[in-house]
Design a protein that fits this description.
This protein is mostly helical and 263 residues long. Helix content is 63%, strand content 8%. It has nine helices and five strands, in the order ααααααααββαβββ. It has helices at 2-13, 17-30, 35-47, 51-64, 69-81, 85-102, 109-154, 161-188, 225-231; strands spanning 214-216, 222-224, 232-237, 249-252, 257-262. Strand 1 (214-216) and strand 2 (222-224) form a beta hairpin.
Length: 263
Protein backbone atom coordinates (compact mmCIF):
# COMPACT_ATOMS: atom_id res chain seq x y z
CA UNK A 1 0.00 0.00 0.00
CA UNK A 2 2.75 2.44 0.95
CA UNK A 3 4.56 1.31 -2.18
CA UNK A 4 1.60 2.45 -4.27
CA UNK A 5 1.60 5.81 -2.49
CA UNK A 6 5.32 6.35 -2.91
CA UNK A 7 5.14 5.34 -6.56
CA UNK A 8 2.17 7.65 -7.09
CA UNK A 9 4.01 10.53 -5.40
CA UNK A 10 7.03 9.95 -7.62
CA UNK A 11 4.89 9.89 -10.77
CA UNK A 12 3.12 13.07 -9.64
CA UNK A 13 6.43 14.85 -9.06
CA UNK A 14 7.39 13.86 -12.61
CA UNK A 15 4.07 15.30 -13.85
CA UNK A 16 2.95 11.91 -15.10
CA UNK A 17 -0.52 12.52 -13.77
CA UNK A 18 -2.41 9.83 -15.68
CA UNK A 19 -0.05 7.13 -14.43
CA UNK A 20 -0.21 8.61 -10.93
CA UNK A 21 -4.00 8.34 -11.03
CA UNK A 22 -3.74 4.66 -11.87
CA UNK A 23 -1.27 4.09 -9.03
CA UNK A 24 -3.38 5.95 -6.45
CA UNK A 25 -6.39 3.95 -7.66
CA UNK A 26 -4.47 0.77 -6.83
CA UNK A 27 -3.70 2.19 -3.40
CA UNK A 28 -7.40 2.97 -2.87
CA UNK A 29 -8.41 -0.51 -3.97
CA UNK A 30 -5.99 -1.97 -1.42
CA UNK A 31 -6.93 0.45 1.40
CA UNK A 32 -10.25 2.20 0.69
CA UNK A 33 -10.42 3.78 4.17
CA UNK A 34 -7.33 6.00 3.88
CA UNK A 35 -8.52 9.52 3.08
CA UNK A 36 -5.19 10.87 1.81
CA UNK A 37 -5.20 8.42 -1.09
CA UNK A 38 -8.37 10.09 -2.35
CA UNK A 39 -6.95 13.59 -1.99
CA UNK A 40 -3.80 12.54 -3.82
CA UNK A 41 -5.87 11.25 -6.71
CA UNK A 42 -8.13 14.31 -6.52
CA UNK A 43 -5.11 16.55 -7.04
CA UNK A 44 -4.15 14.52 -10.11
CA UNK A 45 -7.67 14.98 -11.42
CA UNK A 46 -7.26 18.72 -10.87
CA UNK A 47 -4.04 18.70 -12.87
CA UNK A 48 -5.75 16.83 -15.73
CA UNK A 49 -8.81 19.15 -15.63
CA UNK A 50 -11.19 16.40 -14.55
CA UNK A 51 -13.14 18.59 -12.15
CA UNK A 52 -16.10 16.31 -11.38
CA UNK A 53 -13.88 13.33 -10.59
CA UNK A 54 -11.79 15.53 -8.30
CA UNK A 55 -14.94 16.65 -6.44
CA UNK A 56 -16.06 13.03 -6.07
CA UNK A 57 -12.74 11.97 -4.54
CA UNK A 58 -12.73 14.97 -2.20
CA UNK A 59 -16.23 14.17 -0.98
CA UNK A 60 -15.15 10.61 -0.18
CA UNK A 61 -12.05 11.88 1.64
CA UNK A 62 -14.19 14.26 3.73
CA UNK A 63 -16.50 11.39 4.64
CA UNK A 64 -13.48 9.55 5.98
CA UNK A 65 -11.83 12.58 7.59
CA UNK A 66 -13.82 15.85 7.82
CA UNK A 67 -10.75 17.69 9.17
CA UNK A 68 -8.60 16.98 6.11
CA UNK A 69 -7.63 20.43 4.85
CA UNK A 70 -6.58 19.39 1.37
CA UNK A 71 -9.89 17.64 0.73
CA UNK A 72 -11.82 20.89 1.25
CA UNK A 73 -9.15 22.91 -0.56
CA UNK A 74 -9.05 20.73 -3.68
CA UNK A 75 -12.83 20.45 -3.78
CA UNK A 76 -13.12 24.22 -3.57
CA UNK A 77 -10.77 24.59 -6.52
CA UNK A 78 -12.64 21.98 -8.58
CA UNK A 79 -16.03 23.54 -7.77
CA UNK A 80 -14.68 26.91 -8.85
CA UNK A 81 -13.85 25.46 -12.26
CA UNK A 82 -17.32 23.92 -12.40
CA UNK A 83 -18.73 27.41 -11.75
CA UNK A 84 -20.37 26.33 -8.49
CA UNK A 85 -18.97 29.41 -6.82
CA UNK A 86 -21.03 29.49 -3.62
CA UNK A 87 -20.20 25.87 -2.79
CA UNK A 88 -16.58 26.45 -3.76
CA UNK A 89 -16.25 29.43 -1.43
CA UNK A 90 -17.85 27.45 1.40
CA UNK A 91 -15.31 24.64 1.02
CA UNK A 92 -12.37 27.00 0.71
CA UNK A 93 -13.35 28.89 3.84
CA UNK A 94 -13.63 25.58 5.69
CA UNK A 95 -10.12 24.74 4.49
CA UNK A 96 -8.89 28.15 5.65
CA UNK A 97 -10.46 27.75 9.09
CA UNK A 98 -9.11 24.21 9.48
CA UNK A 99 -5.61 25.35 8.53
CA UNK A 100 -5.76 28.07 11.15
CA UNK A 101 -7.09 25.68 13.81
CA UNK A 102 -4.42 23.09 13.02
CA UNK A 103 -1.61 25.62 12.76
CA UNK A 104 -0.86 24.69 9.15
CA UNK A 105 0.66 27.34 6.88
CA UNK A 106 -0.50 27.24 3.28
CA UNK A 107 0.86 30.68 2.48
CA UNK A 108 -1.51 32.50 0.16
CA UNK A 109 -2.72 29.33 -1.57
CA UNK A 110 -6.07 29.02 0.19
CA UNK A 111 -6.75 32.73 0.57
CA UNK A 112 -5.79 33.27 -3.06
CA UNK A 113 -8.23 30.54 -4.11
CA UNK A 114 -10.98 32.24 -2.08
CA UNK A 115 -10.32 35.56 -3.78
CA UNK A 116 -10.28 33.87 -7.19
CA UNK A 117 -13.60 32.11 -6.55
CA UNK A 118 -15.21 35.34 -5.35
CA UNK A 119 -13.84 37.23 -8.33
CA UNK A 120 -15.19 34.62 -10.73
CA UNK A 121 -18.56 34.74 -8.97
CA UNK A 122 -18.57 38.54 -9.33
CA UNK A 123 -17.72 38.24 -13.04
CA UNK A 124 -20.52 35.72 -13.54
CA UNK A 125 -23.00 38.12 -11.92
CA UNK A 126 -21.69 40.96 -14.09
CA UNK A 127 -22.04 38.94 -17.27
CA UNK A 128 -25.59 38.02 -16.31
CA UNK A 129 -26.41 41.67 -15.62
CA UNK A 130 -25.00 42.82 -18.95
CA UNK A 131 -26.90 40.10 -20.80
CA UNK A 132 -30.14 41.04 -19.06
CA UNK A 133 -29.76 44.72 -19.96
CA UNK A 134 -29.11 43.89 -23.60
CA UNK A 135 -32.09 41.54 -23.65
CA UNK A 136 -34.26 44.23 -22.06
CA UNK A 137 -33.30 46.76 -24.74
CA UNK A 138 -33.98 44.25 -27.51
CA UNK A 139 -37.34 43.33 -25.98
CA UNK A 140 -38.43 46.96 -25.69
CA UNK A 141 -37.42 47.66 -29.30
CA UNK A 142 -39.42 44.62 -30.36
CA UNK A 143 -42.49 45.93 -28.50
CA UNK A 144 -42.14 49.28 -30.25
CA UNK A 145 -41.93 47.55 -33.62
CA UNK A 146 -45.01 45.45 -32.87
CA UNK A 147 -46.86 48.61 -31.84
CA UNK A 148 -45.86 50.29 -35.11
CA UNK A 149 -47.11 47.34 -37.16
CA UNK A 150 -50.39 47.28 -35.24
CA UNK A 151 -50.96 50.98 -35.89
CA UNK A 152 -50.20 50.55 -39.57
CA UNK A 153 -52.67 47.67 -39.81
CA UNK A 154 -55.36 49.94 -38.35
CA UNK A 155 -54.91 52.58 -41.03
CA UNK A 156 -57.96 52.78 -43.27
CA UNK A 157 -56.58 51.72 -46.63
CA UNK A 158 -59.90 52.56 -48.33
CA UNK A 159 -59.53 56.25 -47.62
CA UNK A 160 -57.91 58.85 -49.84
CA UNK A 161 -54.31 57.87 -50.66
CA UNK A 162 -52.94 61.18 -49.45
CA UNK A 163 -54.61 60.71 -46.04
CA UNK A 164 -53.38 57.14 -45.73
CA UNK A 165 -49.87 58.16 -46.69
CA UNK A 166 -49.86 60.97 -44.14
CA UNK A 167 -50.97 58.61 -41.34
CA UNK A 168 -48.35 56.03 -42.29
CA UNK A 169 -45.66 58.70 -42.28
CA UNK A 170 -46.80 59.94 -38.87
CA UNK A 171 -46.80 56.43 -37.40
CA UNK A 172 -43.33 55.73 -38.78
CA UNK A 173 -42.04 59.06 -37.51
CA UNK A 174 -43.40 58.42 -34.01
CA UNK A 175 -41.85 54.96 -34.03
CA UNK A 176 -38.48 56.31 -35.12
CA UNK A 177 -38.57 58.98 -32.43
CA UNK A 178 -39.43 56.50 -29.66
CA UNK A 179 -36.81 54.00 -30.84
CA UNK A 180 -34.17 56.72 -30.96
CA UNK A 181 -35.07 57.91 -27.45
CA UNK A 182 -34.90 54.35 -26.12
CA UNK A 183 -31.52 53.68 -27.68
CA UNK A 184 -30.25 57.02 -26.39
CA UNK A 185 -31.39 56.11 -22.88
CA UNK A 186 -29.49 52.84 -22.99
CA UNK A 187 -26.44 54.47 -24.52
CA UNK A 188 -26.31 56.96 -21.64
CA UNK A 189 -25.78 54.08 -19.23
CA UNK A 190 -23.63 52.11 -21.64
CA UNK A 191 -20.63 52.45 -19.34
CA UNK A 192 -22.49 50.31 -16.85
CA UNK A 193 -22.49 47.49 -19.38
CA UNK A 194 -18.75 47.31 -19.20
CA UNK A 195 -17.56 44.71 -16.75
CA UNK A 196 -16.79 46.29 -13.41
CA UNK A 197 -13.57 44.90 -12.01
CA UNK A 198 -12.93 44.81 -8.28
CA UNK A 199 -9.24 45.34 -7.49
CA UNK A 200 -7.72 42.81 -5.09
CA UNK A 201 -6.69 45.59 -2.75
CA UNK A 202 -10.38 46.45 -2.18
CA UNK A 203 -11.19 42.88 -1.11
CA UNK A 204 -10.93 42.33 2.62
CA UNK A 205 -8.12 40.01 3.71
CA UNK A 206 -10.30 38.73 6.54
CA UNK A 207 -13.84 38.71 5.12
CA UNK A 208 -12.83 38.43 1.43
CA UNK A 209 -15.74 40.77 0.65
CA UNK A 210 -15.71 44.21 -0.97
CA UNK A 211 -14.57 46.62 1.73
CA UNK A 212 -16.65 49.56 2.87
CA UNK A 213 -14.62 52.58 4.08
CA UNK A 214 -11.22 50.88 3.91
CA UNK A 215 -8.38 52.06 6.15
CA UNK A 216 -4.75 51.46 5.24
CA UNK A 217 -2.17 50.04 7.63
CA UNK A 218 1.53 50.95 7.30
CA UNK A 219 2.13 47.55 5.70
CA UNK A 220 -0.03 48.70 2.80
CA UNK A 221 -2.80 46.23 3.65
CA UNK A 222 -6.32 47.67 3.79
CA UNK A 223 -9.04 46.69 6.26
CA UNK A 224 -12.71 47.71 6.51
CA UNK A 225 -13.10 50.50 9.07
CA UNK A 226 -16.12 48.81 10.69
CA UNK A 227 -14.18 45.55 11.15
CA UNK A 228 -11.22 47.33 12.72
CA UNK A 229 -13.49 49.35 14.98
CA UNK A 230 -15.51 46.30 16.04
CA UNK A 231 -12.60 43.98 16.79
CA UNK A 232 -10.01 46.42 18.11
CA UNK A 233 -9.76 49.29 20.56
CA UNK A 234 -9.48 52.45 18.47
CA UNK A 235 -7.78 55.59 19.76
CA UNK A 236 -8.22 58.59 17.42
CA UNK A 237 -5.28 60.97 17.39
CA UNK A 238 -3.91 63.80 15.34
CA UNK A 239 -0.44 62.27 15.24
CA UNK A 240 0.98 58.76 15.08
CA UNK A 241 4.44 57.36 15.55
CA UNK A 242 4.38 53.60 14.98
CA UNK A 243 7.58 53.10 16.95
CA UNK A 244 5.98 54.56 20.07
CA UNK A 245 2.67 52.70 19.79
CA UNK A 246 3.91 49.72 21.84
CA UNK A 247 2.06 47.11 19.82
CA UNK A 248 -0.40 49.40 18.11
CA UNK A 249 -0.80 49.75 14.37
CA UNK A 250 -1.16 53.11 12.68
CA UNK A 251 -4.05 53.34 10.23
CA UNK A 252 -5.34 56.22 8.13
CA UNK A 253 -9.02 56.70 7.38
CA UNK A 254 -10.60 59.52 5.43
CA UNK A 255 -11.43 61.29 8.70
CA UNK A 256 -8.27 60.94 10.76
CA UNK A 257 -5.22 59.00 11.71
CA UNK A 258 -5.63 56.42 14.43
CA UNK A 259 -3.64 53.96 16.50
CA UNK A 260 -5.24 50.54 16.64
CA UNK A 261 -4.51 48.13 19.50
CA UNK A 262 -5.62 44.51 19.54
CA UNK A 263 -8.29 44.18 22.20
Amino acid sequence: MSDFKEQGNRLFSERRYTEAIETYTSAIDASPRIATYYTNRALCYLKTLQWSLSVSDCRRAIELDPTLIKAHFFMGQALTELESYDDAITELIIAHDLAREQGKNFGDDITGAIRLAKKKRWNAVEEKRIKQEIELQSFMLMLLEEHRKQKLSEVEITGPPETTEAMVNRINAEHAEKSTSLCKLFSEVDDRRKRREVPDYLCGKISYELMQEPVVAPSGISYPYALVHRNHVLYPTTWADQRSCQGGVVVNSRESTAIVFVA
